[in-house]
Amino acid sequence: MQSVDSSQRFWLTRPFRERATQLFLGVLFAALLLVTVLHLAVPQGHPLHVTAYTVNLFGKYLSYALLAVSVDLVWGYLGILSLGHGAFFAIGGYAMGMYLMRQIGDRGTYGDPVLPDFMVFLNWDSLPWYWLGFDMAWFAFVMVLVAPGLLALVFGFLAFRSRVTGVYLSIITQALTFALMLAFFRNEMGFGGNNGLTDFRELLGFDLRTDATRLGLFLATGVALALGYILCRAIVTSKLGRVSVATRDAEARTRFLGYRVERFQLFVFVVSAMLAGLAGALYVPQVGIINPSEFSPIFSIEIVLWVALGGRATLYGAVIGALLVNYAKTVFTGIMPDAWLFALGALFVFVTVFLPKGVAGLLAHRKRKTQEQKNQARKPQEATT
Amino acid sequence: MITLQRQPHARYLAAALVSAAVMGASSQALAQQDDPIKVGILHSLSGTMAISETVLKDTVEMLIEQQNDAGGLLGRELEAVVVDPASDWPLFAEKARELLAQEEVDVIFGNWTSVSRKSVLPVVEELNGLLFYPVQYEGEESSENVFYTGAAPNQQAIPAVDYLMNEVGVERWVLAGTDYVYPRTTNKILDAYLKSHGVSDDDIMINYTPFGHSDWQNIVSEIKQFGNEGKKTAVVSTINGDANVPFYRELGNQGVNAADIPVVAFSVGEQELSGIDTGPLVGHLAAWNYFMSVDTDANYDFIDAWIEHTGDEMAVTNDPMEAHYIGFNMWAEAVRKAETTDVDAVKDAIIGVTVPNLTGGYAAMMPNHHITKPVLIGEIQDNGQFSIVWQTPSTVAGDAWSDYLEGSRDLISDWRKPMECGNYNVVEGSCGGGEAETE
Amino acid sequence: MRMLSRFLPGLLCLCLLFGLPQAVQAQDDPGQPLLEALDTSSYADKAEAIEVIIESGDERSRRWLEALLNGKLQRHKDNQRFVIVLENRGRHWPVADALSFEEAGEMSRRELDRIGINNALRGTLQNALSLLDLYVDDADQRRDAARDLLGNVDASMVEPLKAVIENEENAEVRRLLSQALAIYRLDQGDVEAIADLEGSLNQQVRSVLNSAARSDDPVLADAASAALAGIEQKLKLNQGLETLYFGLSLGSVLVLAAIGLAITFGVMGVINMAHGELIMLGAYTTWGMQQLLPGQPGLALVLSIPAGFLVAALAGIAIERGVIQFLKGRPLETLLATFGVSLILQQLVRTVISPQNRTVVSPEWLSGSVMINEGLSLTLNRLYVLGFALLVFAGLMLVMRKTRLGLEVRAVTQNRAMARSMGIRATRVDIMTFALGSGVAGLAGVALSQLTNVGPNLGQNYIIDSFMVVVFGGVGNLWGTLVAGLSLGVINQVLEPWVGAVLAKIIVLVFIILFIQKRPKGLFPQKGRAAEG
């Protein structure tokens, strides 16, 4: 972690003074710009041209990256290993999906002006109450943040109040997402069951099937990632963040010092859930479907793996991990469809055994080799957290 | 961060991870010079659906090999492009886009689950691809770019129920299914159909279970109770894949045999049975459009080729494999007819194309992109095969829009020239919904 | 059923003739036209032909009919010869001549036409054959035959059956046959027959009473309803017991799946995501054993118990040595690495064996159910699994409590440094513990192979539930795992008839979440030193 600037500046602007954040934002925006230029300015067929397909793919990776950042915020800085963050991601996605469904209007297969196709199909007479309002973009966008936030608030309130910690907390987050997955699979829930929500057409009036919209979504996701990153950095470098880290390392001690630990935990947890929801909302229009499998516990575990692989408690490590794993997945499923799981599995084993601090650790290691050695010698027990 | 920049760098990174990435990329570059016809295969090779879908990948590969041995198509070689969508629905859409936009395949054979098809559908329509979908499904869909070579509900469910009602004398019905759209629709259609034949509400029990349900004790016990009302009872099962093994085991162990309460299944084929000891299940039924036990030379040739291809003397064939066989031959025939692999030309040429199926008849591509199929009812044998006990006298044309559902009763689909509509409302006289604008 | 009674005399003399030696001529064999009559597409004609065969009194009839029943009576397409297929898997089948029963080499599936049979015909044939069993010496066999006749009696059988009842010595068989007659009489509208049926929990009895209760005759309907009410009363209790059994059975599966994890995760602290795949290995071992010992599924299954343990334990040792030993004190990273291992193992099975499910045969003694009374039967395979789970649990408790290994494991997990300084080889203990936990997972796989799919996804289906059970019970407490597994199973099964399978599962999950809020360390929290870990 970077040394914290202790001067009393506004907490939100503090991250901009950090080298790492500057570097991260620089690279991110350079990449966004480069992809845009290569997509628009370089003619098709040219080896340097970035196709719409690739732009779309990168857009998806970036939404995963934002999700990974949200997990790293609670895991890396709060010590809460959430195995259920996929739930918040999926709820954000569903909120966006519901808005997109309502935008279809009477262009659905059955031509019903209000009801989505799957409701006509299953004989729903009218829209259930929880679908109301989702025809308005502002409402849907608010719900993208509020719905996962609310769930995190209730769940976190119960859990942190009764001091559920460690693996117990991890498992009940897993139970949460598992229960939600089963619930959303039920067709009676009114969320399209196993098929979920698909066949989206337009977002804020932009046709989702055009390359321009895809580029726009890609850029929007990039910006969201940047903002999310800055917010997380700001939280982490603020006093609140330092209390969080203290909680992570020694919860009881922090409590004895007089901090209401559960409040800090709850705040960070809710923020993280909202970021995950935002990531889900950006993900859905880019992949064109939201379905209960996003709630599956295995997906949530995968998110944690991205973070671990990239390097926990660095934030930028989470981004690297998400991009790396998902890019590897895309490549491997294409070129070695029968054997890609071997490669992915081996990658996980390799990184854990040989790169205990993830890819970010490797980068940091290079930069501060000598310092690292000193640290290691000083506190050998650091790893036990 | 490097991955974000652009393609060559991205490739470089992959190469650093696994050198195979570069090999893959360069072999793609080489392939383009020969200009083969590319056939995309979009079936899950890992994850939950790999159980069912892997054989379909192998089937298409076999068909491509056979076609190449016979001199290819239009004098060009066929080349399979295989990707693994890993039973992950958004990944299906991504991989379909990869096949169409990056690999520029001429046709795709793929998908099993409804949700994966729904996920791929917008992509195939946007990029104007061709998709052959080989699995029985719920209907209520007709896309300009998709050809449905599996059964629609009227090609499987309704004839099966007719058989039970007329030949077996069933009066009480359990409709048991996995909770997703195919069983929901099928049961809805059957519910309406049964009621129109005078079956009362009390005599129909509907039950849904989650995917991969493994504990059937309670449900089988309930079915037994339900069957004790003095009327002949049957179970119509739309239980999906994996959940069937524990279901049938429980049936056998609780002593529900086919003579008392027959179970007719729409998703249990030879492939599923190969995971079960079928001894206690003899006599339970399945309705399909093809069984491995079909007694025709075409079928025996197909089985021989399949056994040779897999190198497994005990390899079994099933209905979706036949669907791919028909679909592949139809596509090849249409390409020959159109003298090009151009999607629009093939789309036009394929309507009306007729090819032999494996059951001794012919399959024709209808204007609604569904095909004609015979319906066979088979009883499970002790060797994991079905013995055919009944079949429709002639083939049945697939109906995209069910006549037994409220919303779809008035819809028809016809992709031929003047109409070119997937959901034409005959009452309103207009092409409804958004499909009309598909260009 | 009319046909059945017409079979009766023929079948009886068939029985007498059975075993008499008789030379057979291939040409001009009287059997040839009998079989030829069967080769027709009309099932009505087939029924006629069957009758003729029975009445012919030909000693080979029973074998023909059995072959017909099993779909193994076939005819060569070219030379029109009738054969009986001896083994019908694969493409080439060994056959025997249907007239002489001499083996006739192999024939291709392609060359043969099957003499088809449908459910109705099969039912009739089966009843006819089981009616014969009323005359055998074995009382059990007679009882089963009598039970089969419940609901299958028709007018022409009444008199012969009455005669049989009079001569029958076994009270149980007599009761069943009287019931069978009573069902027929009630069906004909005889109110007095109800007296014979009262209190019976048999399905057929309930079935006929139910239809009588709907009858237009008010006297009959009332009497039937009254009899039904009495039966329902008895059934209630049975259903309660049945649900309890279902619950315990589901619970035992959960316990089995979780108990290995209770060692590797609960005791050692390794978040072993590959646990499910170790279960899968155990199940595949069972399949492999059955491949090695064809025709002896029971023996193979018994041998799989040690073999499954060994295979999974060896895999566990490989995982421990290959990965986990490098991750000492970094429990969360074991999650990452073992998840990778689980991906590799799954794909390995897909590549090396097959992506499809494998058939694991249930031996005879594991199929079917044991009847407690006519309304309550317990399925045997689940009964065995329940017993097996308890045995495994008891064994594990013994190992942990009474052996040196158990002592060392507890010492090392409580205070590694101290244990080492006492001379315990901690590394060795680690390996042994992990092997033990993995081996137990293998045992779970052997048991699960009798209940569910043996396929590459097997492990995935149980991993989440396993973690849930261990955590709910309290990490590091084996008793907790047992209680948690069984109680979650029972809760689930009690809820299921009310709310359906999906909601029941959701409710159980919400229950776990809320329970952990109340008791943040599970059902049986660890106390003392161990709790600090």
UniProtKB/TrEMBL annotation, chain A:
It is a multi-pass membrane protein. GO terms for molecular function: branched-chain amino acid transmembrane transporter activity. One of its GO terms (cellular component) is plasma membrane. The chain crosses the membrane at residues 21-41, 87-105, 136-160, 167-185, 212-232, 264-283, 303-327, 339-364. It is found in: Cell inner membrane. The keyword Transmembrane applies. InterPro entries: ABC_transp_permease (IPR001851), ABC_transptr_urea_perm_UrtC (IPR017778), LivM-like (IPR043428). It holds the Pfam family BPD_transp_2. It comes from the Bacteria. Keywords: Cell membrane, Membrane, Transmembrane, Transmembrane helix. PANTHER family: HIGH-AFFINITY BRANCHED-CHAIN AMINO ACID TRANSPORT SYSTEM PERMEASE, SLR1201 PROTEIN. This is Urea ABC transporter permease subunit UrtC. It comes from Vreelandella salicampi. The lineage of its organism: Bacteria, Pseudomonadati, Pseudomonadota, Gammaproteobacteria, Oceanospirillales.
Automatic annotation (TrEMBL), chain B:
InterPro entries: ABC_urea-bd_UrtA (IPR017777), Peripla_BP_I (IPR028082). The keyword Signal applies. Residues 1-31 form the signal peptide. It comes from the Bacteria. Pfam families: Peripla_BP_5 (PF13433). Keywords: Signal. CDD domains: PBP1_FmdD-like. This is Urea ABC transporter substrate-binding protein. The gene is urtA.
Automatic annotation (TrEMBL), chain C:
GO terms for biological process: amino acid transport. Its main location: membrane. The keyword rRNA-binding does not apply. Residues 1-26 form the signal peptide. This is Urea ABC transporter permease subunit UrtB. It is a multi-pass membrane protein. The keyword Disulfide bond does not apply. It is found in: Cell inner membrane. Gene3D superfamilies: Leucine-rich Repeat Variant (1.25.10.10). NCBIfam families: urea_trans_UrtB. InterPro entries: ABC_transp_permease (IPR001851), ABC_UrtB_bac (IPR017779), ARM-like (IPR011989), BCAA_transport_permease (IPR052157). GO terms for molecular function: transmembrane transporter activity. It comes from the Bacteria. Keywords: Amino-acid transport, Cell membrane, Membrane, Signal, Transmembrane, Transmembrane helix, Transport. GO terms for cellular component: plasma membrane. The gene is urtB. The chain crosses the membrane at residues 244-271, 299-319, 383-400, 467-491, 497-516. Pfam families: BPD_transp_2. Belongs to the binding-protein-dependent transport system permease family. LivHM subfamily.
